[in-house]
Amino acid sequence: MVDEYLDVFDENEKLIGKALRSNVHKNGYWHRTFQCFVIKKENDKKFLLFQKRHPLKDTSPNLYDTSSAGHLVSGESLEDGVREIKEELGIDVKFSELIPAVIYKEEYDGKTYMDREHCHIYFYMSNEKLENYILQLDEVVGLVQIELKELIKLLNDEVESVQADGFQVDSTGSRRKIHKKIFKNQFVPHGEEYYRRVFEEAEKY
Q1: Where is the Nudix hydrolase domain (predicted)?
Q2: CATH number assigned to the domain comprising residue 119
């Protein structure tokens, strides 16, 4: 992974400088990320799409995460973050098509690094079939949809797992359909408050 420069902010998201990504995580500097959840509707059910992170990612490998997300490099605006959707999922989306959802301050102690992010989270409404998404295979190795109501139950410990349907890409680049149960510990540990706020906002649309 290229060690790019990221803008560095204070706790109140005031720009104070820039630093290499490796140092940003090593030293726990606040920085910005762009995150987008794709919302899909089928009949009277609402689903959120989750990507499966590559097993060699430097943070949270092999876990299920936001549909599309990434760091904003130094000088980029929030509008520039929409490139992540094209890069990771292969679909063209305009920033004006996104629904602002949540701005969330996230702190995560990864033991060997400290991740402090100002997460700018958006929604994108789409009923595109999952098989039509083209993944950035050095970043993303799978894509699934999970019903929002079941995600809320999982968050509230009313169920132990949720049903995920989609596909995964193996080491040869071949796709295989998956229909599996996913447990809490298989999601990126953004924290319960993060997911609660996202799910509450998603219910409105």
Answers
A1: 29-168
A2: 3.90.79.10
